[in-house]
Fold this protein.
Amino acid sequence: MDRDVSGHLNAYSRAALVVRLPGDEADFNRPIGLFESSEYAVSHPRAKDQAAVSANSSNRVEPDGAVFNCGGHVATMDWAPSQPGAHTLHLAVAAHPKDRQQNVIGRALEGPALLQIWRIGTGPPSLALGLCLQGGLAWDCKWQPSQAPPASGLGLIAVAQGSGEVSLFDIPDPTEAILHPDKLRKGKGRADSLSGTDRLVDLPLCASAGAGAISGSLVGCLEWLPSTPHDLLLGGCWDGTIACWRVGALLASAGDLGSSAGPGQRSLQLLLHFPAADGPVRALAWAPAQLAGTTSDSAHRHLVAAVGHTTYLRVWDLRDSFRPALQVDLPQRWRFSVQWLHDPAGLLIAEDCGALRWTSLDPFFRRERMPANSLFEGNNSGPIWSTHMQPHGEQAFYAGDNGEVGMLHIARGDRYVSADAHHCLAGMRQEEGRLRVLSAAEMTRRNGLFGRKGGDPASLKPSEQAILSIRCSQSVRDPQAGIEYAWLAHGTAAGIVHILHVNV
């Protein structure tokens, strides 16, 4: 059955965004419309009269990066699980509709929205699927981790919608979805001439959990258990509570309180809901699976770090949720992102003052230097909105309000994290009505992130250049060049997502 998706399309701005990419001439503007993309290669500058090189051309220049327009404020992104060495990846992007660019947290929303699945790899980025939602917007989306990607489809994704519903969708292979639309409800509307609109689909739910089952709490962030069998899903709520569900096969009975599942799909069982903070929970992190001392040690399945609008850093043991297992007093600041590392053992936290905080969890190190904190501050005062560790790597990436993308190298075995390990990778600047993408070399000349001397004083930056979400893909080995690389995605408030080719 077809469904009219014109409301979902009209929810997003179709105005072309003007972008200047690295290698472009100073007076060259690139208009990028909704669901459109453009590549660039710094080593091969493109003149304004040069025709675009076809993705199928044999003389195609391998790009250093690309940008695409998703139509609204990029709230969150996540890479789908992939086969080792796969050169084509998929990125889920949650962009807020044009009428919901700014929202009151903790207030339920409704209305049409899209979860966009983009194909990244060979050729320019393209919209592979657009998943139609009715929950106003998506606060967060997370793919279920997988040791071995599913035999068919892209995998299972959890979405925290503005309505308070946590929804699970089994995302099909985009090629199969387009070739066999009879398997799903495919969208149609008055705007089918717009690029990518034939890829908008209305998938059946695998399972869902409403806010009513957790006393009306609205989920704002999600996190899957990183260790096998990846059967636990955490939700951090705007009222300071945390919920935990077990995801499994469909129960023979009617299901659990607050859970509904589609035919032949999965169950979503609420295990726990408890107060964890005195303000909104903005980010969660499970303990790494490597913390398990033996195969029978399951402590890592129960330890969770939570940060948000609170003065405390708290680590919770889900087996005893009446009090935190660890509580560290921190300055009065808001914290938006947290990464839990195994080696060295510690937490990397993004703060609203434009700083990164490293808190060591090594018990021997904490005896030497209490409270074992390192704080890295740059020249800019805007908040750092997002951090992400390269999967199985030693690079932590981060970005924030100043539009700058940084990398922090955290070597295994090191107890101290040095400010000298920071590097600037790229940047965004709002200049004369257009968004300019800056390369690492241009950022170095501008005294970018954590510049020591000569940097401009902190100033208020245009909101369009703010980078709100950053995610690094799994590494891919290039056998010809003998190097490993990854794709680093970061999304802006303007609606532009920048994909950067980085060596890891």
